[in-house]
Amino acid sequence: LRDGTGSSYRVGAIVDITDISRAREEADVDRLRAEAIFNISGTALATLTADGVILSVNDAFCRLLEHSEVDLLGQPLPSFCFMRDTSTVLELIQDAMTGHPQESVRIRYTRANGGLVTVTQDMGAVILPATRWTPRQTIIYTSMRDLTQLERAHFESLLQAERLDAVFDATATPMLLLDY
Fold it and tell me: Which stretches of the chain score pLDDT less than 70?
């Protein structure tokens, strides 16, 4: 700036940004804590766009589907579903977006090796407020728990029961099965 004589001078202002700095530091710590929990969880976790495109996955998610993180990110989650379950996953995404999430839905996914994995899947949505730099966003989160071993054990018990029934039906000698 210049005064009436043409001499230049400077004007300074001091603003205390201590509260802003502390708030940013606390937000950073909270973000790091949430990321750590996400990454070390034994439950398969992922975040998705409102359209169901995968934004992030944890290691458990990668292990469950036997895909690398690179293979999963940017891909629509329904593309990894067993084809008969695709519409169910699309419905889960829509229900999460409308605020009416379903709980513990059984879904089958195709692993990288072509095998199937059966999971219970939960989804929900979080609305992130707009900031000066980003618009308001809706993020979908999903968790999956592997039911494959449980289903195999159930199937084996059914087969065992069928074999036992066949033995009883095939014998001419009357049998009585007692449970003590």
Answer: 1, 154-155, 161, 163-180
3-state secondary structure (DSSP) of residue 131:
coil
Quote the tokens at residue 109.
């996914």
Distance CA 166, CA 153 (A): 20
Place of tokens 């939960």: 122
Kindly state the tokens that stand for 147: 């039911």
Q: Kindly provide the b/e burial profile for residues 54-91, where b requires at least 16 CB atoms within 10 angstroms of the residue's own CB.
A: bebbbebbbebbebeeeebeeebbbebbeeebbebbbe
Q: From residue 29, how far is each of 4, 35, 126, 149 by CA, in Å?
A: 51, 10, 20, 38
Strand partners, 106: 120
Sequence-distant (6+) residues with CB within 8 A of 78 are 52, 86, 89, 90, 93
pTM of the model: 0.68
